[in-house]
TrEMBL record:
It comes from Gordonia desulfuricans. Keywords: 3Fe-4S, Electron transport, Iron, Iron-sulfur, Metal-binding, Transport. The keyword Secreted does not apply. InterPro entries: Fe-S_cluster_ET (IPR051269). Transmembrane segments: none annotated. Its cofactor is [3Fe-4S] cluster. Pfam families: Fer4_15. The keyword Electron transport applies. It comes from the Bacteria. One of its GO terms (molecular function) is metal ion binding. This is Ferredoxin.
Length: 63
């Protein structure tokens, strides 16, 4: 499973960064960076919650 971002929708609210800072970060220009696209099996539920928390629905999980 992989995490994806629609950078056209993303407003860099950084909610995902706060919830999973080892997976998401903002660069020097405040653009979202996905640090770890592959989702470990033991973190799928956690990252589903992060995806659901995105206010712009810019994040998704793909099988």
């Amino acid at each position: 499973m992989r995490i994806k971002a629609d950078f056209e929708l993303c407003e860099s609210n950084a909610i995902c960064v706060g919830m999973a800072p080892d997976v998401f970060d903002l660069d020097d220009d405040d653009y979202l960076v996905i640090l770890q696209e592959e989702v470990p099996a033991d973190r799928v539920e956690e990252l589903r919650q992060v995806v659901a928390s995105c206010p712009k629905s810019a994040l998704s999980l793909e099988e």
